[in-house]
Design brief:
- Helices cover about 30% and strands about 25% of the residues.
- It starts with 5 loop residues before the first strand and ends with a helix.
- It has a seven-stranded mixed sheet with strand order 10-11-9-12-15-14-13, with helices on one face. A six-stranded parallel sheet has the order 5-2-1-6-7-8.
- Helix 1 crosses helix 7.
- The chain contains seven helices and 15 strands.
- By secondary structure, it is α/β, with parallel strands linked by helices.
Length: about 300
């Protein structure tokens, strides 16, 4: 679909600066661009090869924009919808009626992997552990890892702050189990596969990783599993070696390696990595297209 020229507002342009940069690379057709944030009015952000001053969110007239992308959750979503804006919600907050949501990268990652396992055999249940890069939390996560790392090397006191429950530099911080369980329950219902999920924040700037194991109702072969993963859209099965989160940076596919089947053929496991920022940008673009097509 070719897009019309957009009068585009982006909310949370400072809190999600990394994602904004990736969105800029998609070269959206713009008639006007309005970078908005609750703070930092007057600061400059780069988008589409130009520098733009950040506008105060509270003072913005939503009738001047025809589409809005929310990278940060705010009650202004309701104001944008009321003014007739097409709204794409990439904030990860509670779904808003009338807004087109952007699915979380972890959900898309798990859906692709479970889809491949289901193509190989009758999946009874699956168990996964996801390792989340700090860019999951936007610029706040990137800044916190940078600050804490510098403080440790300088032998200074490390400020934990509010972004993570514990120090993130040189550490692994589990996500609250209630949040992980809620995500697993929602996905299990959607995909028809019981799922147990653990999530943790790791001191990596970009690139999510996931280890997943599936249990089958009948034995599967290594060949069948390889074929299923090779044929599943959005997955790149590494022919040999191991994929690291750095390998996936800049791409939109889920890289899979370490694909293994148990001796009895009743369980199989895989290691997967994905560029969370790039994939989120592409999912946001797809949501934007859906919003423009909606009446």
């Amino acid at each position: 679909m070719s897009m019309p020229l957009l009068k585009l507002a982006v909310v949370g342009c400072n809190s999600a600066a990394g994602l904004l940069e990736t969105l800029s690379e998609l070269k959206l057709p713009l008639a006007a661009f309005y970078p908005l944030d609750r703070d930092d009015e007057g600061e400059l952000v780069s988008f589409g090869g130009d520098d733009w001053p950040v506008l105060e969110l509270a003072d913005f007239d939503w009738k001047t924009a025809d589409v809005a992308i929310f990278l940060a959750h705010t009650d202004a979503i309701a104001d944008a919808l009321a003014a007739g804006c097409k709204v794409v919600d990439a904030s990860g907050g509670e779904p808003q009626r009338g807004a087109v949501p952007v699915p979380p990268v972890t959900d898309v990652l798990l859906a692709r992997l479970l889809g491949a396992f289901k193509a190989a055999g009758d999946v009874q249940f699956a168990v996964g552990t996801g390792l989340l890069a700090v860019s999951q939390e936007g610029q706040a996560g990137i800044d916190k890892l940078s600050e804490q790392t510098r403080a440790i090397f300088a032998q200074q006191a490390v400020e934990v702050g509010t972004t993570y429950a514990k120090r993130i530099a040189f550490n692994v911080v589990p996500v609250a189990q209630e949040k992980a369980a809620a995500s697993a329950t929602k996905l299990a219902k959607k995909l028809g596969v019981p799922l147990s999920l653990q999530l943790a924040h790791v001191p990596v700037f970009y690139g999510h990783s996931l280890s997943i194991t599936a249990r089958f109702g009948a034995p599967v072969t290594a060949d069948a599993l390889t074929t299923a993963f090779t044929d599943t859209g959005g997955i790149y099965l590494l022919p040999s070696g191991t994929a690291s989160s750095q390998d996936a940076i800049g791409g939109d596919q889920v890289w899979v390696s370490n694909l293994a089947v148990s001796d009895d053929g009743l369980s199989a496991s895989a290691w997967a990595v994905v560029d969370n920022s790039k994939l989120t940008a592409l999912l946001t673009l797809a949501a934007l297209q859906a919003a423009l097509e909606a009446r």
